[in-house]
Write a structure and sequence with these properties.
By secondary structure, this protein is α/β, with parallel strands linked by helices. The protein has two domains: 201 residues, Quinone Oxidoreductase, Chain A, domain 1, CATH 3.90.180.10; 137 residues, NAD(P)-binding Rossmann-like Domain (Rossmann fold, 3-Layer(aba) Sandwich). 26% of the residues lie in helices and 25% in strands. The chain is built from ten helices and 18 strands. Strands 3, 5, 6, 9, 10, 17 and 18 form a seven-stranded mixed sheet that branches. A six-stranded parallel sheet has the order 13-12-11-14-15-16, with helices on both faces. Helix 4 packs across helix 5. The longest helix is centred in the middle third of the chain and has 13 residues. It is globular. The two termini are 16 Å apart.
Amino acid sequence: MKAVRFVGVGKPAQVVELPKPEPKAGEVLVKIGGAGVCHSDLHVLHDGIGIDHSFTLGHENAGWVAGVGAGVRNWKDGDAVAIYGPWGCGYCHACMQSFENYCENWKPGQAYGGGLGADGGMAEYMLIPSERLLVPLGKLKPQDAAPLSDAALTPYHAIKRALPLLTPDATAVVLGVGGLGHMAVQLIKCLSGARIVAGDVDDSKLEMAKKMGADLVVNTKNEDAAEKILKFTGSRKAALVLDCVGVQPTVNLGSRIVGMNSHFTIVGLGGGKLTMDGGAAVPFGCMVSTPYWGSRAELLEVLALAEAGRIHAEVTHFKLDETPEVYNKLHEGKIRGRAVIVPEANL
């Protein structure tokens, strides 16, 4: 089968031929219908994640069950499934609550999950180590729903933590309207009554954000971006700043526009720093957090929103062989919404 592999830090992804996996006891084989192309993949390729062996990329995955090992009882061939991305131990306190994204037994050097140290879904088939890591897709199509397992789940988890603050007289600001950000705008719209500001450096992405429910869009390249946002929010400023980029300019902007008794939530992995320097980098009462992914239960909630038509991932499909070029497009900021890799047989 074809697969897209990480082969070393600083090296481009490679499309190779691998044997089709066979599920052993407790495992499930999934025929991949779609694998999202996430900006985190660029961090894996360019910077590494502390894992020196090669592995198949793709941590946003959906498809159909294509085989089960002995002992698997809840899935059968042909079932449409999404694959939960962060793989924990399955039995610690966090994992028992389905928060495998915060597994207490994870250690540096271990895989984070399929596509992040273990073999992921940018292939014709993906082997899942436990049936608990699958959730039903319902009527959703795998090639369209795959990004929901991260691009929607990650902001959903972050937004839920701030929901008590997102009252109808409050403002939420989303910085970066790419894969995560375009989902975040939709999620805030359907989960709360708060007004929404979307900021990005790309006017076409801002136009998309406006169509998805943003009340104000601001090009953050402009020097007066903060002033425009603060004029809109008023003296209360932003109750939630959700930074989906995490580079230094967005971190700096977020710290200027966030209000007191607020949430400044950074989910982007751009490497920006928020420095306290012995004083307050943010207003009093502001909670600064860096949430990671979401729980399995929250993935079910995200898929329910999508199946009800309340959110959707804006996707463009590409073939497996096109993946290295798709990564170049993503690096250059030329992907609108989410790129999804689809094995040729399923296009």
